[in-house]
Amino acid sequence: MNMYECTIIVDGPKQLEEFKALIAQFSAKLSGEKLWGKRLFSYPINKKESGEYYTMKLSMDPSKLADMRKKLHYSNIVIRSLIIDKKRL
After folding, report:
1. Domain count of the chain?
2. Which residues contact 73 (CB under 8 A, 6 or more apart)?
3. Domain CATH code at residue 24
4. Under 8 Å CB-to-CB from 41, ≥6 apart: which residues?
């Protein structure tokens, strides 16, 4: 299991819970969560003007990471996401 840091932008608490359910499908364990707050975007993203920013620490199997990124990219759960390997920081 590798450690990753994930930053996401969601509409609200409902989408955050859906994101947590999604990472549970990939056997990822959430070890920390930090809310940055609701912020306005510089430009509209998917016709949205603002979103809630969260940073989380995850541990998961690296072989499942590509599938999780693909699922996040094509789903409507998050507006934007960024997942980085903690070893490369």
Report:
1. 1
2. 81
3. 3.30.70.60
4. 48, 49, 50, 51
Cβ-based neighbours of 2, under 8 Å, separated by 6 or more? 59, 60, 61, 62, 85, 86, 87
Which class for 41: exposed (0-12), middle (13-18), buried (19 or more C-beta within 10 A)?
A: middle
pLDDT in tens, the chain (89 residues): 899 999 999 998 899 999 999 999 999 999 999 999 999 999 999 899 999 999 999 999 999 999 999 998 888 889 999 999 987 66
Tokens of 5: 């840091």
Tokens of 35: 């809310």
The amino acid that residue 15 corresponds to is Q
What is the pTM (predicted TM-score) of this model? 0.87
- Which residue shows structure tokens 């940073």? 55
Range of the domain at 23: 2-88
